[in-house]
């Protein structure tokens, strides 16, 4: 997901602006892994495989999200691009 797209997202609960912590992105500014945080309600929304997970509380699976964020190695995205 593009950084510019993520900048337009807001918290689904209170419509506050979200702050982003980028864990892995490619050279085209696509964010693969990261965390969006809301200062208003202190919720966080992980970005996993480029998809922001912004489910309502009852559908959240913190253990699953945490596992996905840690098992993904940032290295694979930060390597220099292959020369074709
Ligand atoms: Zn919020």
Automatic annotation (TrEMBL):
Superkingdom of source: Bacteria
InterPro entries per UniProt: Trm112-like (IPR005651)
SUPFAM superfamilies: Trm112p-like
Annotated protein name in UniProt: Trm112 family protein
């Amino acid at each position: 997901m593009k950084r510019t797209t993520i900048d337009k997202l807001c918290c689904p609960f209170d419509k506050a602006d979200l702050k982003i912590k980028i864990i892995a992105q490619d050279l085209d500014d696509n964010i693969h892994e990261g965390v969006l945080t809301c200062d208003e309600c202190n919720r966080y929304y992980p970005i996993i495989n480029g998809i922001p997970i912004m489910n309502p509380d009852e559908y959240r699976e913190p253990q699953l999200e945490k596992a996905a964020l840690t098992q993904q190695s940032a290295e694979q995205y930060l390597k220099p691009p292959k020369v074709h």
